[in-house]
Amino acid sequence: DVKVTQSSRYLVKRTGEKVFLECVQDMDHENMFWYRQDPGLGLRLIYFSYDVKMKEKGDIPEGYSVSREKKERFSLILESASTNQTSMYLCASSFSDRGGGYTFGSGTRLTVV
Amino acid sequence: QKEVEQNSGPLSVPEGAIASLNCTYSDRGSQSFFWYRQYSGKSPELIMSIYSNGDKEDGRFTAQLNKASQYVSLLIRDSQPSDSATYLCAAWYQGGKLIFGQGTELSVKP
Q1: Is A99 on the interface with B (CB under 8 A)?
Q2: Does B97 touch chain A (CB under 8 A)?
Q3: Which of A12, A70, A74, B97 lies deepest, with the highest CB count within 10 Å?
Q4: Phi, then psi, of A64 in degrees rounded to 5
Q5: Are A100 and B49 inside 8 Å of each other by CB?
């Protein structure tokens, strides 16, 4: 069974902390994505990557960075967590050129206090 | 600006009825379309994909695509309370990025 695994289901962090959200996929997908989802705002793309060492800004990259050192792993970094980054974070992956859909991880519910 | 539009709902149907969910997209360059189901507090789950004009059936689900009208729909026959969820429509564009609609909340009443 193909999987996208996010390291934490629930996370509570303090304002100003550096936060790492990890995502690992076992499907040999080229593409990986980070979204946040908030009530009434839908899915908003933060960053994405089409290849190792490659990253592209999405619609709301401010306050975030990413790292993709290996094909299967895509990390989202909150440089200095703020309360407005409290959200559900979703990682997804896909093949690059087959028109296929995403496979999502189970999500990380992050609360910044 | 590529956009995917959905009615936010909520759409309420009685158990056993047909639920009809609709979606329009702005860019004719889109090649593939997807429906995701998302239960409250959970992540989206892919339930249907459609690539060419016409209907595609999978069990109680039928996806319909009309590229000339830039319209995608999802029909759920014999709706069950367990179908109550938010349904996300998404369009795939060259380069591998999906554009998502805001989602339609479906409530199936027993």
Answers
A1: yes
A2: yes
A3: A74
A4: -125, 155
A5: yes
